[in-house]
Specification:
Number of helices: 11
Helix content: 10-25%
Structural class: alpha+beta
Number of strands: 22
Radius of gyration: 60 Å
Strand order of the largest sheet: 3-4-5-8-7-6
Largest sheet: 6 strands, antiparallel, barrel
Distance between the termini: 148 Å
Length: 520
């Protein structure tokens, strides 16, 4: 009994097989006899061509199965067959070669080497190209027939208008175009009315200076800083100043204008950055803090922005602007080295000692920078450059060694306002003369003399007492005692701590004034 090929059968367990299906049998439909007669190979032929069979077909011999291919229908023969007139003519024959038809018909077109891929018995064959090569000589080339020449009106207007009408149309078009051009020019000319007779400013460089950069800050500050020249006979001097009021008030150092104040024949001049020179007069002086105010008559001067020196801390960047050695608009950059640094120096006018609580900076400051501006990174005024500490040589010449001092703007503006208002300023005073001491038991300012009737005398302060604190400020030397007292107002009651015979004593002092008109 034969197995059903579509029924599952179990495979060989040794090979790990399971139930599998047998392949479906081949379906061979019967061959159409006519198709086999037309498309099938002749008996005994295995290749693509059979020369022997072709010769027998040409002689009318039939194959074993019958005639190879029946005769085509008469309609196809009439449509695609050759006519008797075309006997001996092959396809693609060049024009004018009829006399060689017989020779070309017998000549094999594939050459002596033969074409292995061509059926030698095929009725269609390729001939020579139908086009001939162009003759090299221009005389042998056939002349093209020249066409009829057309006029411009015939080409453009199709010959439908007369010549005069075409001329009139052309003139009208030109007039319309000219009128339109004139109208456009007139409108453009009137639209640029604002641009007539305008002088354009020169464009600067493409360098970008963002806000906060040193260059941008200096650009805003420099116009508010002036150079001050003093001419006195054959001599003279120079310094710097800062415009603090739009009315022409300039803040500077007292030692800059002192020569002009002591000599009535001296000439005081303020020079602005744009070259403007203006005579100046002294409004007021304060030798004890080395500050002075002068005034010039100029229109719309650049006023510097006032900052706050109390906000400064060591390490903050600062910029010094002035005229050291007469070099105008000199800029140096540094940092705040210290704040609240008590500084004392002899007064230029001989009126005691200059004492103030200074801002120390390493920005290069030299003679001529005095009275100039010390600004922060925003360009706000935080100090007035006043003093340097230097090392002199045999010729008593010295320069900056990175120890410069400026008067804090918080104190400077308060004094400047008093000078502009009253021409003078009154400072609070304790009424003692003291010297700095540093011992194992105490460090401060030792009282050497007490002015009779002064605030110190009324508070019971005696000679030999060592003052170590005034208000909230510690006192470590005589200069610091002065600045600690000046940090308060005239008439203000301030606690003072001192050491007497090894014991600390605190007394309350009502501060007096150094102005005789104000009184002690």
């Amino acid at each position: 009994m034969s197995e059903n090929p579509y029924e599952p059968r179990r495979g060989d367990p040794a090979r790990g097989g399971g139930p599998r299906l047998q392949p479906r049998g081949l379906d061979r439909p019967p061959v159409d006899p006519q198709a086999a007669e037309v498309f099938g190979r002749p008996a005994g032929v295995t290749g693509s061509f059979d020369d022997e069979q072709r010769r027998r077909s040409a002689q009318g011999v039939q194959h074993a199965g019958g005639t190879r291919g029946a005769a085509p229908p008469p309609a196809l023969t009439e449509a695609f067959g050759r006519s008797p007139e075309d006997a001996g003519v092959i396809l693609q024959r060049p024009p004018g070669d009829d006399e060689q038809a017989d020779d070309d018909a017998e000549k094999p077109l594939w050459g002596e080497q033969g074409d292995p891929w061509r059926d030698p018995g095929a009725p269609v064959a390729l001939s020579e190209p139908a086009l001939r090569d162009e003759p090299e000589d221009d005389d042998e080339k056939p002349q093209r027939r020249r066409g009829v020449a057309l006029s411009l009106t015939e080409v453009v207007l199709g010959g439908r208008l007369r010549r005069s009408s075409a001329v009139i149309c052309a003139v009208v078009v030109l007039l319309v175009g000219a009128l339109g051009g004139f109208v456009g020019w007139y409108i453009a000319d009137q639209g640029n009315e604002l641009g007539k007779d305008v002088t354009l400013a020169q464009i600067g460089s493409g360098k970008q200076r963002p806000p906060g950069s040193v260059a941008k800050t200096v650009e805003e500050v420099v116009p508010a800083v002036v150079s001050i020249e003093i001419q006195s006979g054959s001599g003279g001097g120079f310094g710097s100043g800062v415009v603090i009021e739009e009315d022409g008030y300039i803040l500077t150092n007292d030692h800059v204008v002192a020569p002009a104040a002591e000599n009535s024949q001296a000439k005081l001049t303020a020079v602005f950055t744009d070259g403007t020179r203006a005579p100046a007069k002294i409004v007021g002086r304060d030798p004890k803090t080395d500050l002075a105010v002068i005034k010039v008559n100029v229109r719309n001067p650049t006023v510097i922005q006032i900052g706050k020196s109390a906000d400064l801390a060591p390490g903050d960047p600062v910029i010094a602007v002035g005229s050291p050695f007469g070099l105008e608009n000199t800029v140096t950059v540094g940092v705040v080295s210290a704040v609240n640094r008590p500084i004392s120096a002899p007064s230029e006018s001989g009126e005691g000692t200059v004492v103030y609580d200074a801002i120390q900076t390493d920005a290069a400051i030299n003679p001529g920078n005095s009275g100039g501006a010390l600004v922060d990174s925003r360009g706000a005024l935080v100090g007035i450059n006043s003093l340097i500490r230097t090392v002199t040589n045999e010729r008593q010449e010295g320069g900056s060694i990175g120890l410069g001092f400026a008067i804090p703007v918080d104190q400077a503006i308060e004094i400047a306002e008093s000078l502009m208002r009253n021409g003078k300023v009154a400072h609070p005073e304790l009424g003692v003369q003291a010297a700095s001491v540093a011992a194992n038991t105490s460090e401060g300012a030792r009282v050497q003399n007490v002015v009779p009737g002064s605030a110190a005398a009324r508070a019971g302060i005696k000679e030999g007492d060592v003052i170590i604190r005034v208000g909230e400020r510690m006192v470590r030397n005589a200069a610091e005692l002065t600045v600690a007292v000046r940090a308060h107002d005239v008439g203000q009651q301030v606690p003072v701590k001192l050491v007497r015979e090894g014991r600390e004593i605190v007394t309350t002092v009502k501060l007096g004034s150094d102005d005789p008109d104000t009184g002690r």
